[in-house]
What does this fold into?
Amino acid sequence: MTTQMVEKTPENKPIATITVRPDGVAVVTLDDPNAELNTITRTFGEELRAAIEKIERDDEVKAAVIASGKKGSFVVGANIDMLKAVTRAAEIEELSREFALALKRLNDKKPFVAAVDGAALGGGFELALGCKAIVATDDKKTVFGLPEVQLGLLPAANGMMRIAQRTGLQVALDLSLTGKNTRAAKAKKMGLVDEVCPQEVLLDVAAKLALDLADGRGPKKKALKLDAATLTRIALEKNPAGRALLFKKAREATRKKTRGHYPATEKIIDVIETFGSKGFDAAAKLEAASFGELVMSDTARELIHIFFATQALKKDKGTDAPNVQAKKVEHVSMLGGGLMGGGIAYITIHARIPVRLKDKDDEGAGRGLKYVRDILDERVKKKQLTAVERDQEFAKLTATTDYSGVKNADVVIEAVFEDLDLKHRVVREVEAVMKDDAIFASNTSSIPITKIAAASKRPENVVGMHYFSPVHKMPLLEVIQTKKTAPQVVATAVALGKKQGKTCIVVNDGVGFYTSRILGPYMNEAAYLIAEGVPADMIDRALVDWGFPVGPVALLDEVGIDVAAHVGPIMLAEFGERMTPPGSTAKLIADGRKGRKNGKGFYLYGDAAKKGKKQIDPSVYEILDVKPTNTKVSVDEIQQRCVLQMVNEALHCYGERIVRSPRDADIGAIFGLGFPPFRGGPLRWVDSVGAAEIVRRIQGYEDRFGKRWTPAPALVEKARENGRFYAR
Ligand code: NAI
It folds into this structure.
């Protein structure tokens, strides 16, 4: 075998190495010497092009295979640092065009086969698609996806068109608009991948296929199954009227989701539609120009910022105390197997940590087990797990009605009823049996951790771990430290949260912590609007239009009107006038309305609800004694009043150091409450509008409505110094 170096990186090691096998197949191994993963940079593109040229010139080489030198990872897409550093649209447009051109000539002289083991994402997937054929390993890590849309971008190396060529326009739309990953077996079924094989034989299988291709024998193509779905697809995609309908529907569905806030989605549809009607080159041209525009857009800037913020949080231990190491967590004990306890137990066993669940009676314990089992069964149904894997995972969970097993736990998490006396009792009972150095974590949603820790003999080991419902779907974990919580306890809670797949922010203790606290005045303002006669569904629509996934009234039904009624007075007592409610909650509670949980809230549930569309229960207005006919309040005012309340409270939290940084304030609001990601979070939004302008808006409402509208000191200060929360 001969090994030749292609171009050198500044560090003197190449990214692309060519090895020629005795069978005449050249293997291009991609292995960026300066990074853990292969990403696409200018040098990457240049070296790839040089490798292609070298292979074209080498008469000994009949065909080529492109593989990765990174174990379990192929190429994960464009280098995002590079994208962030770009200052002109033309610059990035040129870069993407060059990479696309390199891929376009890949198979001009000799066939290239991609040998994919691990993630082939974004430009990495497009590189594989540029090859004549793709061979993938059957490993779970081997996935294909185009995540660009999640950063406000589009795939810019012709991958969308190549997917359309291989599998049709609809699949191209679906993969590019969702950014979702597809595993190898499914990708093969869809026609994206040609062969799937075990890791050990990947290169041999790919080399054999490359040689076959060089000899004019292609990969075995399965005969097209002419089932109803395929026939419909062909009928739609192969004629102009059908295509027009397909794209009209895609546009409508996308708009409904994005409300026009994510321009990348529209551009993706434009490019694929152009491909359908005008062909590859016209689409490629539009794609490159759109990419340049999108990279420079505000939306991409905010989404890329969030990407970096979450990356930084992955590395953050959650404490600035020096030399702190998280303790190893090998056993978790879960107290309470309700909605939250079941969810937390599931994400813990999923992180391969055994859990002993304790509930007060057999019924509770059984409910907890069933909750976990149902999630696992659902995953089997979706083919994310095999039945054997499910059983292995489920075996990590045991349930009891006493404290047996607690002595083994490194962390005990409680999610019993929201009742301080009960929580105190539980702390005392558990501390009598648990290890001295084990951590006691509470998932309380509203009781300050300091109050819970008052019953503890070891308050330094007490911490809050505030999960969100449904636990296995919501991405945030709010870790709450009291003045006494030891830094190592915080670091351990954060490390456990990360293992459970959560993005963790650490906040200081206080009523409502961070997320519930900023949610309070936001919902309160919605209640004021309703009291003024603004229709509740109009409020929800306004906030969804602003970019929230659900409006505040629907959210109140979800969270529980009883929960809000419980927390409201506590917030009022703690923070004073600005939390004053309009007094409507008491009337709703008196009417027995708790929200979705008892099928009685602002919206109709069960039989009373029409399928598909959420409808307000008209009787709610009678209870509140208002006529929902006030249409004088504009959509803009509804949005501003609710959002500014949340933002102002976030700034109180920032000023009082409840949050550690603007980053945590923004990530908490986005991941915990659905603050629109494309706006970057409450503090970044203030930066983009300008602190002085936000103060002006808040003071405008202060003039109209009085004290609940006083701007937060941290905001006033920022406005005075004409400053920003983030450097540009
Ligand atoms: P839930 O009522 O569904 O579950 C509570 C469970 O605790 C029940 O299974 C009950 O039998 C069990 N339990 C009661 N006393 C116990 C004891 N002495 N030992 C062991 N188990 C006992 O309540 P949910 O919704 O799961 O809430 C639990 C905690 O999580 C509360 O503190 C709540 O504030 C908090 N939380 C709730 C959220 C939600 O959206 N539901 C969100 C975040 C936090």
